[in-house]
Amino acid sequence: MVERDFRVRNEVFDESTIRVLDKFRHEYFEDLEHCISTGKEANIFRATTKDGFVAVKIFRTYTTSFERMAKYIEGDPRFARVKKSRHSLVYLWCRKEFKNLSKAASIGINVPKVYVFRKNVLVMELIGENGCPAPMLKDVTLDNYQEWYDEIIAIMVKLYKGDLVHADLSEFNILVFKSRPVIIDMAQSVLVEHPEALNFLKKDLYNVNAYFLKKKCKIKSWEEFKKLIF
Ligand SMILES: Nc1ncnc2c1ncn2[C@@H]1O[C@H](COP(=O)(O)OP(=O)(O)OP(=O)(O)O)[C@@H](O)[C@H]1O
Ligand SMILES: [Mg+2]
After folding, report:
1. If you measure from the C-alpha of residue 133 to the centroid of ligand 1, how many angstroms do you get, rounded to a whole number?
2. What's residue 69's pLDDT?
3. What is the CB < 6 Å shell around ligand 1?
4. Which ranges in the chain are annotated with CATH 3.30.200.20?
5. Predicted structure pTM score
6. What is the DSSP string of 67-119?
């Protein structure tokens, strides 16, 4: 094993994380297999179950930007009274992703189904066929970009009307599965009453627009978009 693999292993699998995984084993999955992705703040693993696979997102406790997290947590009334140590912030981040994905699902947004979370570990549906993770929007070629753009705008509107702003929406956090978009990565998502919600929403629109503009789509300005939500 190369040195970097060792480092990642030790950063992800600290004692407390191993205890959580042991607790989940046999109830939510059987074996934790390989890492599907190493992101900014978490590693996603594939795990087997009795009849298929699940995705296990493990938030790293030591290699995360706490300054970045604070911006999304402060101002969210759901998490106002949480003490802000390094561990508790990461646990909060995990809980926040669980809650946001559940809420998004409850208003009819296509997101991975969440099963359980504890501390820094979240178990959810693995989006993909036969355990093979679905590709990100950025890695596929579509033949109807305008329809996709319109659908993603409709998703943003639906999220907003359901009280949520994704706050990191882009071609990286949209998977393409069965010719439909699946929205992922909602730890940073905020309620519309968050003081920065509109700024986050504006940034989401900017990122989505930048991608679809390259695909020659007719895009909506912020002014046009606002008319859809207010
Ligand atoms: N439920 C899932 N099913 C299939 N693939 C997934 C799932 N969740 C995450 N992935 C894959 O793992 C990648 C990283 O997941 P996610 O964006 O949630 O983590 P992150 O740490 O925030 O990563 P990043 O910093 O890259 O945004 C995704 O881009 C996707 O390819
Ligand atoms: Mg992501």
Report:
1. 10
2. 83
3. 36-37, 39-42, 44, 55, 112, 124-128, 133-134, 136, 172-173, 184-185
4. 3-132
5. 0.94
6. HHHHHHHTT-GGGTT----HHHHHHHHHHHHHHHHHHHHHTT---PPEEEEET
